[in-house]
Write a structure and sequence with these properties.
Layout: H1 6-13, H2 18-30, E1 33-34, H3 35-40, H4 47-56, E2 61-67, E3 73-79, H5 84-90, H6 93-108, E4 125-128, H7 132-135, E5 148-151, H8 153-164, H9 167-172, H10 175-179, H11 209-221, H12 226-242
Antiparallel strand pairs: 1-3, 2-3, 4-5
Helix pairs in contact: 2-4
Length: 243
């Protein structure tokens, strides 16, 4: 691996999140990392997500092919070219991301934007509303709190899987498509990953749990699944209001 500018190494060292840090540290030590190593050595069953985390910190990675242990061609990743004039823009990005998270917590509280559940701030993960692979860092490449959302770990994984199986992710790369998707704005969406679906996630917490248990018991007495039972209650309420 060619000698890296110290400014770039400092940028790499500034990343503290476990998954991207694992990838970065391995490449700094060995020059590259393979999907095989990400799965078998580090236990990441979805290597592209780990690579995406690195790129979202502004660190370029390039993909190439190597031969795996079984003789098949597999993907490998190494640092891409970083021009000196771009390093200044990337430096301090991790600190800026922390400021964005703090701004979102201050504005919306410690809750997941998808499931609306309140969780500890340390467990909240910051994610682009529009996937980085589609929209980059937004207008002008500047980091803006409005372009990000706070997610629980489970919501982030669900979003990643859905986005990565979307036609817009793999081919179209149209930012406007993402802006009307559930995974970007669940409160005002017209599709989910380009599928004509509407979705509402409900969470009962604290004192609300008693209500959930009553709904669960009533659904069970009627031999119905809870989601269907709740949907029927909502539909009945809407119909009564119309009449």
């Amino acid at each position: 691996m060619p000698k890296l500018p110290q400014e770039f190494v400092d940028l790499c060292r500034s990343v503290t999140a476990k998954r991207p840090k694992t990838v970065i540290d391995h490449i700094l030590q060995h020059g590259f990392i393979t999907t095989e190593e990400l799965k078998e050595k580090y236990g990441y069953n979805h290597p592209p997500r780990a690579v995406r985390d690195v790129r979202e910190h502004g660190i370029p990675l390039e993909t190439y092919r190597v031969t795996g242990a079984d003789g098949r061609k597999i993907a490998a990743y190494r640092f891409g070219e970083v021009k000196t004039n771009r390093l200044r823009k990337l430096s301090g990005r991790t600190g800026l991301s922390r400021k964005i998270k703090e701004a979102l917590v201050e504005k919306y509280g410690c809750r997941c934007f998808i499931y609306l559940e309140e969780i500890d701030e340390r467990e909240l993960q910051i994610d682009h509303r529009v996937p980085y692979e589609v929209g980059g860092d937004g207008a002008g490449g500047e980091l803006n709190p409005d372009d990000f959302m706070l997610l629980s770990g489970s919501a982030n994984r669900a979003k990643s899987w859905s986005c990565e199986h979307c036609e817009n992710w793999s081919n179209l790369k149209d930012r406007t498509v993402c802006l009307t998707c559930y995974w970007a704005y669940p409160e005002n969406h017209s599709h989910i990953a380009m599928r004509q679906i509407r979705r509402l996630d409900l969470v009962w917490q604290g004192e609300e749990i008693d209500i959930y248990e009553k709904l669960k018991a009533e659904a069970h007495s009627l031999d119905k699944e809870i989601p269907l039972f709740v949907k029927e209650i909502i539909e009945s309420a809407v119909c009564r209001k119309r009449t």
